[in-house]
UniProtKB/TrEMBL annotation:
Domain Thioredoxin stretches: 53-190
One Pfam entry name: AhpC-TSA
CDD domains linked to this entry: TlpA_like_family
Gene Ontology molecular function: antioxidant activity; oxidoreductase activity
Cross-referenced SUPFAM superfamilies: Thioredoxin-like
Keywords, ordered alphabetically: Redox-active center
Name under which the protein is recorded: TlpA family protein disulfide reductase
Species this chain originates from: Brumimicrobium glaciale
InterPro entries the UniProt entry points to: AhpC/TSA, Thioredoxin-like_sf, Thioredoxin_CS, Thioredoxin_domain, Thioredoxin_ResA/DsbE_sf
């Protein structure tokens, strides 16, 4: 390579990176991992809702079906800190935050109630979970959502305290294993 070419490449390196990134978005098999990676980089820590804006889930009677077809009721979570994550396998921000949610489940799986809820077919969900080695519990709604969980965006994650009050409601990818969130959970468990 001559000096002129090297100089041109040096001046244009970010242009080349940008064009390459855009080009990757046109390849379907690469699009999801790249988009998830970028969203993971920019995922922030979840934040608490102001106390006067927190609402309580009025009806804990919500039927959920696990991937083996067994029915569960959301009321089983009463008295526990609860994480409810509405997600889908085709959603890049959902996929982006899953590693941090898996770490959270690994750390607190027996101390918190976890509900990962998707409207997809069990076979699709199982394939996704197996490909990523995720072990958290996933459910399909068997009845209408509590009205407090109605959202038009994926992912939407709710954190409920032991009294069933929604203390966090986050839309989009977040880092659920951030130090500030772990400190919040540890404080609530004491």
């Amino acid at each position: 390579m001559n000096d002129k070419t090297k100089t041109w490449l040096k001046k244009r390196k970010w242009d080349i990176v940008f064009v390459a990134f855009i080009g990757l978005m046109f390849i379907p098999s690469v699009r999801m991992p790249v988009m998830s990676f970028v969203q993971r980089i920019f995922a922030g820590s979840p934040s608490e809702i102001a106390a006067d804006e927190q609402k309580t889930v009025n009806s804990m009677d919500w039927v959920l079906v696990d991937l083996e077809g067994k029915q569960h009721n959301f009321s089983e979570a009463q008295g526990k800190i609860t994480i409810v994550n509405m997600w889908a396998t085709w959603c890049p921000p959902c996929v982006a935050e899953m590693p941090s949610l898996q770490k959270l489940y690994d750390k607190y799986g027996d101390q918190l109630a976890f509900y990962f809820v998707s409207n997809e077919k069990p076979a699709t969900i199982k394939r996704f979970l197996d490909s990523k080695n995720y072990t958290f519990p996933v459910y399909i709604p068997g009845s209408n959502y509590p009205k407090e969980f109605e959202s038009n965006s994926l992912p939407t994650t709710y954190v409920l305290d032991q009294e069933g009050k929604i203390i966090m409601e986050e839309v989009g990818a977040h880092d659920w294993f951030s130090n500030s969130f772990l400190e919040k959970i540890d404080g609530m468990l004491q």
